[in-house]
Every structure is written in structure tokens, then in C-alpha cells.
Amino acid sequence: MILMIDKVDILGILIDRVDMGQALDRIEEFIKLDTSNLVVTPNAEMIIRATKDPKLREIINSAQLIVPDGAGVILAANLLGQPLSERVAGIDLVKELLAQANQKDYSFYFLGSAPGVANKAKEKVLKKWPKLTIIAHHGYLDRELEEQVIDEIKKEEIDILLVGMGVPLQEKWLATYLDQLDIPVGIGVGGTFDILAGNKKRAPEVIQGLNLEWLYRLLQEPKRLGRMTALPEFIYKVLHQRLK
Predict the structure, then answer these.
(1) Cα distance between residue 184 and residue 106, in whole Å
(2) Beta-carbon neighbour count of residue 232 at 10 Å?
(3) DSSP of 180-225, one letter per residue?
(4) Tens digit of pLDDT for each residue in 199-230?
(5) CB of 113 within 8 A of CB of 37?
(6) DSSP assignments along 57-121, one per residue
(7) What is the pTM of this model?
(8) Angle, to 10 degrees, between the axis of helix 44-52 and the axis of helix 71-79?
């Protein structure tokens, strides 16, 4: 039986008060259970989107594990007087899971990104952790391909399904199919496959430590500028929540 974990309410999204070690322990417990468990990794942008998308908000809050991904989430928790111990970034969570699984014989399914990316990520990961079992498929699915992927996942008895389709598509896809796939753990991982494949670089640790990873990503991908408007909106709404 899984122990209940305290939560922090940030704009109606209930973030679990967990650090990386606790998140990994909880996922290991999920794998031992005969149920399907959704893991979500909200950052400020996802939380703002969820305030405007009731279905996404429902999916996030009904997930079995909701980790604080993003410096904005940590800042918000501090502003609300409910501090979180550390950021649990989705990419770091995935890397830790891969490292653990190399010793524990967990199987993965990488689903998402453009054709070729998930397979390239798989190849790079297997060079580092050769004991892993990984199946990969791109995320450009028509109905026929989607049915094939669902059949393959069911047949292979996967332990951890990573879906990189972007928010909110990946969360809604997992909410629709996870139970019928009979997989212990499903996680929406955004652009993680591009990073694992080496197509995109993670910010240096010093940049991460300064909580400026968002700026590093913006410089890499200027087209993200429009999405950055979520950050000041997020802080404004958190301050309003604090005043209330």
C-alpha cells in the first residue's frame, strides 16, 4: 500500500511534496502494483495551461504522482509559504529511472517526437545502460498506427511508458489509454527524447543552479518566446493566490 504524500496547492494544481528519491521510491512501488499509475511533471507553463483547460487540470490532479518540475513551481511554493524541498525535473527523473532500471530489469516504451528521434534516443540510452529493454516509436500517429502501437505495448508487457507528445496531448493520451494498456507507470516527458537523442542540449548545471534553464531553452529555441508569456502570468496569479 502506498503512503499518502502531502500536497501543495498552486493555482488549483496539487503538487506532491516529494524530492527525487521519494519520487523514485514511489514509482518503484507503482511497478510492484497490479494497477496503472500516471506520473505528471507540471512546470509553470503547464499549470497556467491547466487553469484554462479543465480537462487537463482534472487529469493532473487525478494522477498518482505529481512532481514539481520547474524553478517557477519551487518559487511559487515558497511564495505561498509551503516550500518544496527540491525541483524534480522530468528529464532528470527519466535519467534516474533509466539508471535504476538497468539494474532492476524494467522495460520501457519510448513513444513520441518526430520519426527517428525516439529510436535515436533508444540507441544512445542503450550505449550507456546496455541491460535495458526499450521499444521506441515516433509520435506521429494516425488511427491505424495508434492501434498498432497500443497492440505492441500490450503484447510486450511494458513497465514504464514514456510519452513525448507535448502538453497537453501526452497527458490526455495517457489518460485515455493507460488503464487499457495495463502498464504500471505512464509519464508525459515532453522533449526528453530530443535531449536523450542529442538533438537538443540541456542547460549547463551552473545555469540550472541559477534557475535560468528557461532562458537557455529560449535562446536555443526562439520560437518558444510566445510560450514564455505564461511565466509572468504564473507569478502574477500566484501572488494573487497568496493575497487571498
Answers:
(1) 11
(2) 10
(3) HHT-SEEEE-TTHHHHHHTSSPPPPHHHHHTT-HHHHHHHH-GGGG
(4) 987 666 666 665 666 655 655 666 655 566 68
(5) no
(6) HHHHHHSSEE---SHHHHHHHHHTT---S----HHHHHHHHHHHHHHHT-EEEEEESSTTHHHHH
(7) 0.91
(8) 70
